[in-house]
Write a structure and sequence with these properties.
GO terms for molecular function: protein serine/threonine kinase activity. Keywords: Hydrolase, Kinase, Phosphoprotein, Repeat, Transferase. InterPro entries: AAA+_ATPase (IPR003593), Circadian_clock_KaiC-rel (IPR051347), KaiC (IPR030665), KaiC-like_dom (IPR014774), KaiC_dom (IPR010624), KaiC_N (IPR047221), P-loop_NTPase (IPR027417). It comes from Pontibacter toksunensis. Pfam families: ATPase. It is a single chain. The protein is of the alpha/beta class and 503 residues long. The chain is 31% helix and 26% strand. The strands form 5 sheets. The protein has a 9-stranded mixed sheet, sandwiched between helices. The chain has a 9-stranded mixed sheet with strand order 16-15-17-18-14-19-20-21-22, with helices on both faces. A two-stranded antiparallel sheet has the order 1-2. A hairpin with a 2-residue loop joins strand 21 and strand 22. Helix 13 packs parallel to helix 14.
Length: 503
């Protein structure tokens, strides 16, 4: 039988940009030009510069950055806030910065006009440091002095051919055109890879998105992907890359509340599972989440707490009132809060930010409190889609997740919680039990996959000593007795109970 040769694999150069290598299948095409285009302020120059700097630092590939708008000093200053020390890399002869000033008034256009001088200058820069990567930023400035379309197109083709002949992995940035991806409408055709960046504002919330328009010779992601620019550079979230191939652990981890562990039947939650705590305001949802975080940190394991309603200091202060010390775990580095108002980002940008924080901190437990606040910036359908991606990501990483949700209507179950219930492994319900002029709390396990959980309602007591769950009493008519009514019944006195937990 004849041997079938393996399929051709296009050589690729890793960008080092978080998430971008995932959706490009390994990076930009090696030895070929990549076009990054988009409108002003969408991040073209930054993405090109990060590709160059990470190539030097992480992959030992020297690079040349040729700018036609910003000077070398301006470039170094602009990216210093991201931790990129361009001057140091230049001194080490691993990076070469060049600024080419193009003035239309100084160009005398003739039929013989070409870019031969630029090629000589660029070729010298490449050869002087043995560059493997090149960035040209931006191509519109280079051709701003040309009106003759025939000459312009000829020179663009010559430029791209020159870069290919030099064997460098090149990135060219371009401004968005009208009816085309670039001003000239030709660069996207002669580039082997084209990436479109977009910065849009919807309902006063801005979101940056990225899309691979084309990538010759390889399979790549085709959707729009949100990306974040912060002090660490660019982070891209490949939102559709997760598959349902995560492992299911049999290891049990405690909830931090012994009586709740007993109710769950197996002594706690499955490691890597998802837990939802639902209830009305003031029923103790954050307290349950905090006790879970505490017992995990005491085992010297990391917990990442995403707070969308209270600041770190406020959560720590409030938990101190029930004898729960979270500050010591923050100080020793096992507990980390990331507190943001929901309106600071769009929904997908929150997902990118959370994805990045999880990858950086590497927690074993993640708490999101509350998911309800995300509904202030998006529809229930959009929040469910976001939480679906987050839950699948956490499961694929083997991270145990606890979500807090506030019920805002008078129904027993919030329809919006029911919308994500199929993704949740354990669902706890806490609610008010009112009787005899008192407001008490009750807790029960709505479901817990893979466990023989209790079907009983237990009274949920929060006081200066912490949390505890106790069995409720019933009177002769079968009514539930809680609080003072329970104590009276235990003392042999007449008490009035609650008929059901739904009242």
């Amino acid at each position: 039988m004849a041997h079938t040769p393996p399929p051709f694999q296009l050589p690729k150069s890793k960008t080092g940009i978080q998430g971008l290598d995932n959706i490009t299948g390994g990076g930009f095409p090696t030895g070929r030009p990549t076009l990054i285009c988009g409108s002003a302020g969408c991040g073209k120059t930054l993405m090109a510069m990060e590709f160059l700097v990470r190539g030097v630092v992480e992959f030992d590939e020297p690079g040349v950055f040729m700018a036609f708008e910003e000077t070398k000093e301006e470039l170094a200053y602009n990216v210093a806030s991201l931790g990129f020390d361009l001057n140091k890399l230049v001194e080490e002869k691993k990076l070469k910065l060049d600024h080419v000033r193009v003035e239309r008034t100084e160009i005398e256009e003739t039929g013989e006009y070409d870019l031969e001088g630029l090629f000589i200058r660029l070729g010298y820069a490449i050869d002087s440091i043995g560059a493997k990567r090149v960035v040209l930023d931006t191509i519109e400035s280079l051709f701003s002095g040309l009106d003759n379309q025939a000459i312009l197109r000829s020179e663009i083709r010559r430029l791209f051919r020159f870069l290919k002949d030099k064997g460098v992995t090149a990135v060219i940035t371009g401004e968005r055109g009208e009816g085309s991806l670039t001003r000239q409408g030709l660069e996207e055709y002669v580039s082997d890879c084209v990436i479109l960046l977009d910065h849009r504002v919807i309902d006063q919330i801005s979101t940056r998105r990225l899309r691979i328009v084309k990538y010759r010779g390889t399979v790549h992601g085709t959707n729009e992907y949100p990306f974040l620019i912060d002090e660490d550079g660019i982070s891209v979230l490949p939102t559709t890359s997760l598959e349902l191939k995560y492992a299911a652990s049999n290891e049990i981890i405690s909830s931090g509340i012994p009586q709740l562990d007993e109710m769950l039947g197996s002594g706690g939650y499955f490691k890597g599972s998802s837990v939802l705590v639902s209830g009305f305001a003031g029923t103790g949802k954050t307290s349950i989440a905090s006790f879970f975080a505490k017992q995990f940190c005491e085992q010297k394991k990391r917990c990442l707490y995403f707070a969308f309603e209270e600041s770190q200091d406020q959560v720590i202060r409030n938990m101190a009132s029930i004898s729960l010390d979270l500050s010591s775990h923050v100080e020793n580095g096992y507990l980390k809060f990331q507190a943001n108002s929901p309106t600071v980002y769009g929904l997908e940008m929150h997902l990118v930010s959370m994805h990045k924080a999880i990858k950086s901190f590497k927690p074993e437990v993640v708490i999101v409190d509350p998911i309800t606040n995300l509904r202030t910036i998006a529809s229930c359908k959009e929040v469910k889609a976001m939480l679906t991606r987050l839950i699948y990501f956490l499961k694929s990483e083997g991270i145990t997740a606890l979500f807090v949700s506030e019920i805002k209507n008078t129904d027993m179950l919030d329809p919006e919680d029911e919308g994500i219930s199929s993704l949740i492994d354990t669902w706890l319900m806490v609610r008010d039990l009112e009787a005899n002029g008192e407001r008490n709390r009750g807790l029960y396990v709505l479901k817990s996959r893979g466990m023989h959980n209790s079907n009983k309602v237990r009274e949920f007591i929060i006081n200066n000593d912490g949390l505890r769950l106790i069995d409720v009493d019933t009177d002769t008519a079968g009514n539930v007795l809680v609080g003072t009514a329970r104590q009276l019944n235990q003392n042999g006195k007449q008490a009035v109970g609650v008929r059901t937990v739904n009242q």
